[in-house]
Amino acid sequence: MHTSTPPYLIRLFSLLTALSLITGCSSMQIEDFKGQKPQLNLEEYFLGSTTAWGIFEDRFGKLKRSFKVQIDGKIIDGVLVLKEDFIYSDGETSQRIWHITPEGNGRYTGRADDVIGVAQGRVVGNALNWRYDLNLPVGDSVWRVSFNDWMFLQSDGVLINKAQVSKWGLHLGTVTLFFQSNKPNN
After folding, report:
1. Coil vs helix vs strand at 22
2. Is the pLDDT of residue 19 over 50?
3. What are the percentages of helix, strand and coil residues in the chain, rounded to 5?
4. Which fold would CATH assign to domain 31-181?
């Protein structure tokens, strides 16, 4: 006697497989970067003037926006204060001011006006993993989105940033930035 798998079970299995591929779990862990050089020191890297260039791609890989960021970093009472001035390709401008507090052992917390609660970050080797929720203006509304932000320091003072943006666990898009410190010898 031959029994076949009911069509609804095949569709259910296909759906679950597709969902696992879409939402997939990142196997990258911050500990993977132990000993990697050059060593990332947030306070040193962002002190003074830094310029960044970035893009946002939707979940299908379509470029939706590009931008440039001018960053001014200062340490005030042991807190790294980053004033970020964004200029988007469509002419829109915005500003975010981060207050980043070192908590010891490579751990950081951060606050900004559009960040919900407290951002949590950790530096190991040349990498920073930064996670936070953000109020993101989208058209006439504001969406609460989650960022899983990875930064990797390269030689010559280049810092590469790739952030996965999601809402309710569903991937919305990717932000990619390249930072260049404007300090001499970088």
Report:
1. helix
2. no
3. 15, 60, 25
4. Lipocalin (2.40.128)
Report cis status (omega within 30 of 0) of the bond before 38. yes
Domain ranges of the chain: 31-181
- Look up residue 60 and give its DSSP letter: T
How confident is the model over 26-82, as pLDDT tens digits? Answer: 589 999 999 999 999 999 999 999 999 999 999 999 999 999 999 999 999 999 999
Are 12 and 19 a contacting pair, CB within 8 Å?
no
Per-residue DSSP letter, 135: E
Mean confidence (pLDDT) of the chain: 88
Amino acid at 166: S
- pLDDT band for 138, please (50, 70, 90 cuts): confident
DSSP structure class, residue 13? H
**Measured between alpha carbons, how far is 173 from 25 in angstroms, rounded to an integer?**
16
Cβ-based neighbour number of residue 41 at 10 Å: 13
Q: Which residues of 141-177 are buried (b: 16+ CB within 10 A; e: fewer)?
A: eeeebbbbbbbbbeeebebebebbbbeeeeebbebeb
Strand partners, 55: 66, 176
Residue among 178, 180, 169, 185 at smallest CA distance from 55: 178
